[in-house]
Each structure stands twice: as structure tokens, then as C-alpha cells.
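Reviewer 2 asked us to include a model.

Predict the structure of this chain.
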Amino acid sequence: MTTKKYLICAALGVAAFAVAQLPLASSMQVHHPDERYYTDAALVMLETGDYMTPRFYNGETRPHKPILTYWILAASYDIFGVSYMTSRLPSIVAGAILLTLTYAIGFVATRRHDVAFLAMCIMETQAAFLLSSNRATPDIFMTTSLALGFLGLAIQLRDPRPRAFPPALILTGCGIAVMTKGLLGLVLLLFAAFFLRHILKYRLKWRPLFFILWLALISAWFLLMVREYDSSFISEFLYDQIFGRLLKDTPLHKPINIVGYLFLIPAMFAPWLLFFINPGSRRKRLIVALRDPMGIEVAIMISWCALCALIFGMGNKVTPRYVLSTAPLLSVFIAYVFLPPQGNAVPLHKTVVPRAPRGFLLACATATTVALLSVPLTGGFSKTQILPACSFSIVIAIAVFFALRAPRRVSTPAAWNTLALSMLSLIPLLAHVPLGQGVEAELLSVVERLQEDPTTRGTVLCDVHPSVLSRMRILAGRSLPVMPAKELEDGEIPETVWTRIYPEFSATMCETNDFRRIKTLRLSLSTAQRLNEAMQANGVSESQRLLHFLRRGYPQIDYHVEVRSPVK
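Predicted model (C-alpha cells):
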């Protein structure tokens, strides 16, 4: 019965994660600039029918990343239509699968459902994981596939007999990782082979066939691209994956980056590490586990963390999403050390009813009160708040269920983690309509009207961030003849540009006789720097900016629309 309860709680935990992510997925509030490379390419695939070559919005090939992520987004668009939600839906599904794999890795490594469930709870509130699983980027797909490889490695290590199933999981996970983001999947394959070297000595009937099939599948697309675009395609891919990272930044910064990753990887779990600072049983268990590992699993975790720090430290920046693949292993390790040994558990009598901590109930009541106050704060309940309100209510209910009905040793941390997860739904609930849309929604209608008029039809040059134009394409559900001013070389406007749009604070667009102004529009603004400028121009004091922002959304400023004068 306890096992069944853990499985029910795990299913509810995964559901809480997915429900909490949906409101943010349907808006632009967590849009990452890199998403445009994949959403634009997916739209181009749908429109051209060329599903083999990833491209930028203007048709140029993009050899930087493998093909699988583009296929996933194109399939989502084709099945569900083009929208913010369908752009992020595959990432949310991948995040839910990653939580399930974290539970599986925890149980296989420790044979304890309490450790597995707590590891999943720790993972689902990890910041880098939450952000990556709400972006149309390959990070979450690669991490999920690597976790599948780690699951196969854990199964094989727990059963020393050579079998076909664990290597199949490892090869599948590594292959998907290679086809979604790049060469880190090959690194995991070599990593797993090192720890399974004693098993590889045995002859397996199906092992050569598995490897040949795996090699053929992951190399087929690359060989096709070489045939289509010659070896320069692979050269550019390898430059992005390896050589470009090594050449960027100065060599003296590489050791600093490596040290930075060694600190960043555990720091991603800083709230949980606070439990091990004070002297006590948890701190002693942590010291014992690090000094004398419980088994090969701890050695694998430490080795993978160090290897990721070394690989990505050779690049030019330190960012959590690059080392997200270490998070499932660290979640299992923290959960194992956090919970006392199973033999020390106090048996529960059937008549004992767990009590929710008063602090937890007070926090739930406070969060609910804040959610209710958002209605008058934002000027009344709107249709756009229905999904966040439902999501918030469901996640809060699951948190209360964990506090009251989850097994005793994990009920409190699981409840607090799920309550923290509800804040994802609270953000768009508080944001209301003005924060749900930026300039792209209004700018789209302007561009569409320009295309309807034969005198203004043609490429539109827009002085906004390229991500805004990418979001415009998602809202429109198709590619648009828009070009970001950021791509201008030496400020020279191409002959193909017939119309340009820029805000009054623009420093990119200069006055020229080639263009004449046809109208000035009051549109919203979404760039942080120009938000400040607009607030100052409208006379809004710093103390009033938050309330002004919540009530009215982005400030309105003048956007100038100019058309190229015909050549005489």
C-alpha cells in the first residue's frame, strides 16, 4: 500500500508541474531569445516542406544544432497549430518525462520509494529545470535523453549480469541527445562505457547490432547534409559545438569558468544545501557519503559533475542550463542524504492522521489571499486569468494533499515544494492582460495592414529586438516579411526594404530622404531600457511604477512608420 501511495504522489507531482507551467507557456513572459532560432525554423519547414534542413527566418541554413528539436516543434505546430503554447508544449512534456526518469533513477539506485519521490520533488522546483522546460529550446530534450542514458547505466550497475535492455536505454538516450543538441550524447556514451568496462568484456549476441543501428541512425542526417551542402555544413556544426567555444574568450578565463561551474552545480540546489550546514544527523550523512561513497552511484555523480564543469568551462560563459544534466543525479543524492536510513523509520499506526504544519497552512492561505487580491489590483477578473486561476487552485490542492496524505517522512518537503511550484501560476495571474502581451501583438496588425496596401507592400525593417519579430511570426502562424534593424550592416538599408518602423527613442534609425513618414502610432513597448525612458517621459515616479505597470501594462510611445520614396 505504501508503494502504491508513493506512485500516486509521484503522478500528482508530475501533474502539478505540468499544470503550473501551462499559464506561463501560453504567454511571452518567459520568452528566451534563443527560442526564435527553433520556432522560426519550424515555421519555415511547414511552409516550404523541406524538413531536412534547419533554416533561419530568411532562408539561410542553420547548421549549428542537429535536426530533432526542429522536427519536434514542427510536429507540434502541424498537430496543434502555431501558438506560444504549442511552441512550449513539447518542452513541458519532456520536463514531465524527466521528472519520471528522476524518480526511476532514484528508485533503481537506492531501492527506496521515499528517496525517489523526494528526488523528483527537488528536481521539479529546480530553477534551471523550470525555465528550460518552458522554452522552445533543445536543453530540456537533451537533458531528458541523457537521464534515460543514466537510467540504463543505473539498471546495469545494479544487475551485474550482461543484458540487452540497459545498453539499449543508454544508446537510445545518447542518440537522442546527439540528435537534439549535439556531442554531449557521445560524451555520455564513452562515460557509461568506462563504468561498464567490466561488463563489456562479455559477448552479447545483440550488442553489435544495437551499436551499428545506433550509429546508422545518428549519422544518417549528418551524411545527408554533407551530400547536400558539402563538408562546410559539418565544419560549421563542429565550430559551434567545439572549436568556436574553445576560441571564444581568453585562455586565462577558462580556469575561472571551470571553477565557476564547480560552484554553480551545487549552488543550483542552494535551498536544500542549507539543511546540511548545521551540525546534526543530516550533515554527518552528507560527510560520510562524500568521504566514503555509498557505492558507484556517488562516484558517477561526482565524475559527471566534474566532467561537465570541464567541458563547458572551456566555453565563454557560465550558465545553469548547460549543466542541467547533472540535476537529476544531484537530486537523488540530496534526497538520499536528506532522509534517514530506512531502518530508522518509525512505523505509523493506522489511526495516526498526519497534521499539516501550521506554517505551511499559513503560507497557503497567504498565497490564496494574494491571488484573490489580484482581481481588484488589476482592474477586474479577465478571461486571460481563467487558466492561471485554475492552475493555481489545482497546484495548491495537490500541495495540501501532500501535507495531509503523503507518507510521513516526505509529506512536509513535498508539500512545501509543490507550494513553491504554485508560484508559476501566480505570476501570470497577477500579471493580468497588460503583461500578457508586448509590442508584438500590436506591431503585427501594423505589418499586416502594410502588406495589404500595394504601395507599402514589401520587407518591413523594424527597430525592435529580433525576439519580438519571432513572437510576431508565432502570433501570425506564418513567416512574415520583417527584418530586424539589428542585422543592418554599417546602417545601410537594403533595397528590398520598402517600409520601416521604429520607436521615438531609436538610435538606430537615422533621418534620410529615402523614406517619408506616412503615420505615427501609439504602441506598447517591451524593452527594459526603453520602459524606463517611457516611464520618465510620462512623469511616473519610481514608487508608482509597479502599480502603474500592473494596471496599464507597457507604456505607450510613438512608433514612426515610414515608406521608401519611389525612385524618380
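Residues 396 and 419 are 6 Å apart (CA to CA). The first strand starts at residue 459 and ends at 462. We have added this to the supplementary material.
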